[in-house]
Write a structure and sequence with these properties.
Layout lengths: L4 E6 L5 H10 L3 E6 L2 E6 L1 H10 L5 E10 L3 H9 L11 E10 L6 H15 L10 E10 L2 E7 L21 H11 L6 E4 L6 H10 L20 H14 L6 E6 L2 H13 L6 E5 L14 E5 L10 H18 L6 E7 L2 H7 L5 E7 L2 E7 L1
Parallel strand pairs: 5-6, 8-9, 8-11, 9-10, 11-12
Antiparallel strand pairs: 1-3, 1-4, 2-3, 4-7, 6-7, 12-14, 13-14
Helix pairs in contact: 2-7, 3-4, 5-6, 9-10
Bound molecules: S-adenosylmethionine.
């Protein structure tokens, strides 16, 4: 049987349950939800699958060792127990990130320097090669209990690479994907995105509807470990390709801003989902619910108006949004509306009955997903 490892999926706080459901669908074991992440276990094949296919996960860490130590000497004992040669070689540039809370070992810089020097002593060739690749080791200490974890994703997974052309206040790709998943949208239904901006919601929905692995182009740091298993990775890649569907989708994206519509098209092309999205320039006040067989979802990330002087104008737009939703969507059992809302004031402006809520962090702020 292939070796089992322990992993930790880092997520935007609020997305834990959505991410846990994704992990279940990838056949992860021992799933335990924590604030801001999910512990799970499985093989290297699972690790590759999660990195390639997860939509709502920010990064995946591999747990290497837990320890209980109050001194650097004690930490050295645990560092010696890890088979570093499986992960690092002469081409590795090692970064050590330390987070210490309520622990005797609490000087993050000293712990990081000590750890790096210690691993360098164990692997004298570290950082001496020609093609350097960054690897990040995380040390977390809580009440003197520590955990050593290795980042397997490299760049954050929400940076899918298609959004070279962002507009104001774009949504993180992981949050957009999670919003679509939370809405329960299914690919035979219509999806309306009438304030599409740079298209993140529409693109993530199209990728989901086409069953496209969202991170195919990503350069995961685990692909640069000496223990990387190319055969296994190629097998998972092949599976990703065979799962992709050729189906037609009913995704209608629009925005009143010409630059946003152009950005959305550009980004959708880069994400290879442009054929799945119908795009037009339209003011939301002209929105008409389409006639559909299986109903649909209206999904919205409206402007918040955080800038001084914008609040009144934006709040009156939220009043209009409430009217549009009430008149066309709220009483139609075949339709659902999901909207990302910054605070109770904006929610009040909608004057709608909220059926479900999900609190999450977006750009450092607490925001709420509302289902109507
Ligand atoms: C917060 S942005 C959406 C960001 C988008 N989710 C993304 O990730 O790029 C809000 C969008 O609403 C659009 N918008 C504002 N008022 C509108 C209106 N009356 N009709 C249509 N679009 C509008 C803006 O042009 C902007 O692109």
């Amino acid at each position: 049987m292939a070796k089992q490892h322990k992993f930790f999926a880092v997520v935007v706080p609020g997305l834990e349950r959505i991410a846990a459901r994704e992990l279940e669908s990838f056949a992860a074991h021992d799933i335990t939800i924590e604030y801001g992440g999910i512990q799970f276990s499985g093989t290297l094949e699972l690790l590759y699958r999660v990195n390639l296919r997860a939509r709502s996960i920010t990064r995946v860490l591999m747990r290497l060792r837990t320890f209980r130590s109050m001194t650097l000497e004690g930490l050295g004992y645990d560092l010696k127990k890890v088979a570093w040669h499986l992960f690092f070689d002469e081409n590795t540039t090692l970064h050590v990130e330390v987070h210490s809370h309520h622990s005797r070992l609490n000087h993050s810089d000293d712990i990081a320097d000590f750890t790096k020097q210690y691993i360098q002593k164990l692997l004298p060739k570290l950082e001496t090669g020609k093609k350097q690749q960054s690897q990040t080791l995380h040390i977390r200490l809580d009440n003197n209990r520590g955990v050593l974890s290795l980042d397997t994703s490299g760049e954050r997974l929400d940076r899918r690479g298609y959004r070279l052309n962002p507009v104001k206040a774009p949504l993180r790709e992981t949050i957009a994907a999670a919003m679509v998943q939370w809405s329960g949208w299914s690919p035979e239904q219509a999806l309306l995105v009438p304030m599409c901006g740079s298209g993140t919601l529409a693109i993530e929905a199209a990728s989901l509807g086409l069953n496209q692995a969202p991170n195919l182009e990503h350069d995961f740091s685990c692909l640069h470990y000496p223990s990387y298993k190319d055969k296994t990775f190629q097998k998972v890649l092949g599976k990703c390709a065979s799962m992709q569907k050729e189906t037609s989708l009913d995704i209608l994206a629009s925005d009143y801003n010409k630059a946003a519509v152009e950005a959305c098209l550009d980004n959708a092309k880069r994400a290879k989902v442009d054929k799945a999205i119908q795009l037009e320039r339209q003011d939301i006040h002209a929105l008409k619910k389409p006639v559909t067989k299986h109903g649909g979802v209206l999904i919205l990330n409206p402007p918040y108006g955080q800038r001084i002087g914008e609040e009144a104008k934006v709040l009156s737009l939220w009043v209009d949004l409430g009217n549009i939703i009430r008149e066309q969507f709220a009483d139609d059992t075949m339709w659902k509306t999901v909207i990302i809302c910054p605070d109770p004031e904006h929610e009040k402006a909608l004057k709608l009955n909220i059926k479900k809520r999900l609190k999450l962090k977006h750009g450092g702020l607490d925001v709420m997903l509302l289902e109507i």
